[in-house]
Amino acid sequence: MRVRLGLIAGFLVGLAAPLVAPSFVSAGGCPDGGEMIEHEVAPGQTLSGIAVKHGVSQRSIERANPRLDPNKIRSGQKLKVCLPGKSSNSKKKKSSSSSGKSCGGGKIITEHEVRSGDTLSGIAAKYGVSVDTVVARNAKLKKNPNSLRVGQELLICLETKKAKNSKTCGYRTPLHTHVVVPGENLGEIAGRYGVRRRDMIRLNSKLKSNANLLSVGQRLRVCPEIAPRDRSKIEYTVKSGDTLGGIASKYGLTTHELLGYQRGKLKNANDLKVGQTLVVYKDGSVLPGFGGYDDDTGVLSSGVQMPSGKYYVVKHPNLAYGTGDSIRLIQTAISAYRRVWRSSPKIHIGDISKKGGGKFPPHRSHQHGRDVDIGYVLKGDKADEVRFVKANASNLDVNRTWDLIDAFLDTNEVKYIFMDYSIQKLLYEHAKKKGVSRDTLDELFQYPRGKKRGHGIIRHSSGHVNHFHVRFRK
Ligand SMILES: [Zn+2]
């Protein structure tokens, strides 16, 4: 069938031109006779989203627009898109022509070209599918899930509806709708999903005029970095011997949250009466289709080595390769910190990634150049010790460390910071004393919700008592 079509096409072309099939048509054309269309970028659209929409690879759009900076896509911008051609003689052609084809159950195949910084779970989350779904269509990954290589073409079987839903989230995560419960502020809600308040405001135009005016039952759109959980409203009858703190911790809540749920009917712990009914919003399991955002494994190509600097020490320069963005952001944060603190011990920069990325034991992550370990700023004789030293209430320079953390957060590109719960407490109390608002504390810190609760940008992970770990978004 394919041969016959080819002959007919060849014959038609032959009428006007010599029977030579060039693999690339003249300037501005598409390879292999594909049709070129113009795509106007819609607000919030990303290159990967546009690629999925047209059933082509991101790389092919980059090839058709040589001057394009894939990280700077603007709404209204016009991009050339080459739709897959009909001829099929090269191997590459064959794979891109499966793009857009059905893979059963109303699903379509899309193609993803692995890029530096990509991770298996990141790719899965981008398309709103499970890691298993990604692996299933790719023999190499089936054999060895660690065989991810830059430039590799992956076929992904995509649920069309799901992909459409997560377009707003740049295909990183599915879109979730949060329903506001009593006592919640925007910071609390942002923290619940591991995002910033401004991420929420961007997605919910109503919040632009007044982010502090939330009403119970209001629906807010969010692209969750922490997987949303099923939430149910239950009633709890106070028993003899109950304390407010006890009831709260039974459900993994803070007393502040529990009080908020009562809509003013309970002012404080002393008002608690046996037989009284309390409203509790209880978190259940992760909602289907969400999760798997811990993109810890991956690769790094064209990594940049952290240069030496006046205000910091790079512990192991040969283990300090990052994405260009991450390296720039670390430098930006340290410079901003030094504008506040003219005098300070040097900042200690630990591991980022190996040259080329990939597995980096004993770290679980640090594979794609977007993770960096940084020492806490300490007081006393250990301040200039290059080896990471355990921080505690007596040696931690809370003032300086908080400002350093703040400088990182100010880059607006931090995905999360891993920090031991005990250090979170010290910084939280300090920030609170300094007048940082409740909204901001709720947005940033997991503390005081317990180290097991997924909440905030700053979260507990064991092994982070002598350094903190910053994961950048890019
Ligand atoms: Zn680390």
TrEMBL record:
Molecular function in Gene Ontology: lysozyme activity; metal ion binding; metallopeptidase activity; serine-type endopeptidase activity
GO cellular component, one term: outer membrane-bounded periplasmic space
Enzyme class name: hydrolase
Domain LysM span(s) in chain numbering: 37-81, 110-156, 176-222, 234-280
Record GO biological process: proteolysis
Pfam families to which the protein is assigned, alphabetical: LysM, Peptidase_M74
The organism's place on the tree of life at top rank: Bacteria
Cross-referenced InterPro entries: LysM, LysM_dom_sf, Peptidase_M74, Zn_M74/Hedgehog-like
Signal peptide: 1-27
EC code(s) of this entry: 3.2.1.17
UniProt keywords, alphabetically: Glycosidase, Hydrolase, Metal-binding, Metalloprotease, Periplasm, Protease, Signal, Zinc
Region (Disordered): 83-107
PANTHER family the record matches: LYSM DOMAIN-CONTAINING GPI-ANCHORED PROTEIN 2, MEMBRANE-BOUND LYTIC MUREIN TRANSGLYCOSYLASE D
Name the UniProt record assigns to this protein: Muramidase-2
Organismal lineage: Bacteria, Pseudomonadati, Myxococcota, Polyangia, Nannocystales
